[in-house]
Amino acid sequence: MSDTPDHPLLLEIGLLARRAGEAIMAIYREDFDVELKEDRSPLTAADLAAQNVIAAGLAQLDPVLPLVSEEASQLPWEQRRSWSRYWLVDPLDGTREFIKRNGEFTVNIALIDAGEPVLGVVLAPVTEELFVAARGHGAWWQVQAGAEWERISTRELANPPVAAGSRSHGGEGEAALRRLLGDEFRLQPLGSSLKFCLLARGAADVYLRRGPTSEWDTAAAQCVLEEAGGAVLDLSGRPLRYNRGESLLNPEFLAVGDTGIDWAARLREAGLA
After folding, report:
1. Contact, 136 vs 241, CB < 8 A?
2. Which pairing describes strands 129-134 and 85-93: parallel, antiparallel, or unpaired?
3. Are 73 and 95 in contact (CB under 8 A)?
4. Contact of 231 with 259, CB cutoff 8 Å
């Protein structure tokens, strides 16, 4: 079904993500240097270029709303704890994939309200795929700039299921997936927040993340997946929430497409809860 997202911010934030993507691609096509941040994660000029584009665009849109971003100084919990609404951004999710030049990296922009992602935009700059969603307005996919919009939705658990997995980070564990899904499943490696989008458009079924992620890694794509009919749950079966405390790290989680299954029970039975 083709149509146009009807939320007033979605197209505007989508265009902002595309501008950030253009800044990323200008660097992607050339030689670039790689630095290491304090946590030993990589940083490139593309991360910073996208950050500048997004920060300026959001400030023009609403100068009052705070911004939390991977490439900005993080405010302490004492200041953040009173926030109800704020932007949560990863200007280049999947820097390792960017460095490998495999195309599997994204721009993530989310609006958080009372701990929940209520608007999410995910752009894959290389393919130009754009995913957008807003609470109560559904999830949408534009396969390239200027193309028609397609409303997307998750699918019932396939037989055999397809498990999206991280391209550059270990920790999901095939043994854990086997306990959760049974012996017959197919693993689909993919970088960045594109794993959530694979579920959202009905091309995969689960994404189990064991190991650390940050809140900006998941928020935008969580909104897309939820509005497509899926869910992102901690390993106790509760929805993933944001701005919970001093740490900006997520708990381990399970993203699913089919919410008709009792995943909390499956997590307990698999010994993952």
Report:
1. no
2. unpaired
3. no
4. yes
